[in-house]
Amino acid sequence: MSALPPSSPEPAPALPVQVLGVPPAQRPSAASRAGWFALVAIAGAALLSSVMLWQRLSSIQQQLARQSADSGANAIEARALARQAQDVARDTAARQAVMESRLSEVALQRSQLEDLMQSLSRSRDENLVVDVESSLRLAQQQTQLTGSPEALLAALRTADQRIARAAQPRLARVRSAIARDTDRIRSASVTDVPGLLVRIDDIVRQVDDLPVANAVPARAVDEPPRPAAAATSPAAAWWGRWRDAVLAEARGLVRVSRIDHPDAMLVAPEQAYLLRENMKLKLLDVRLSLIARQNDSARADVTAASQALYKYFDPASRRVQAVATQLQQVQSQVRTAELPRIDETLAALATAGAGK
Prior knowledge:
By secondary structure, the chain is an all-alpha fold.
């Protein structure tokens, strides 16, 4: 049989451990130890939070430093861009000025081109209006120079015919104005200058054949011979021939006539040529006054020529009477009325040319 192991001795009762330097009465309790643990935990948490806050502040400082550096770089870049923008703005302003000048030149060229195209593309009616107006103005100038309305009347008739062939309703006013101006010119009392000039030239040619007042009348060539006396003796025939010869010579020496103007008696036969030339000069003055359209001066010159005709030439002569009649006709045909103008027709043509 196996021997039983010896029984272990019973443990001795534990003796209370005594803390060195601390009496048993002053040993900490469990509550105080928990407070200490809580305080240490709080301190550790505070320390940990401080460390974390410090790290965050450090990261924020670093971030701010980076942002500040980036802001400085951006500011430098912005200043460079602003300077570049100013240069671009100056270049743009210069280019804009150049473009505006070129634009004005182009606008001017365009207006000139439009005017040229408009003048080239003028319609047939506009050309008709321009042609009619120019022909009427030319005829009016010719009428003012010549004093005869025939050229103006012919131009008005031609213009009316051309407008009638065009058959444009907007030119009806022009035809009405032409008709009124034509009636006005025909009803006006106008001096027929060409006819008067022809008549005056005829009078000038007759002046050389006019007898002066103190001229000796020529002996009639075709005077019939006196009937012979009855058959007489030769001595009586000789006496009759001698008597007739003496009487003929006496008639040539003595002439009885009536002259109302004493100045005509003083004109010598040699001065008759100068008298006729002076008469021609007076008539030429009438001609010049008519050409210059000085009707008052022309009438005065005709009056002076008539007075000289009755004063120095024989009023009993048929040629002198014929010339006096012609001078009276010239005096009656010289009028002071001015030629009527065609302002109404020209105004209607201007309105038609403007397209109104």
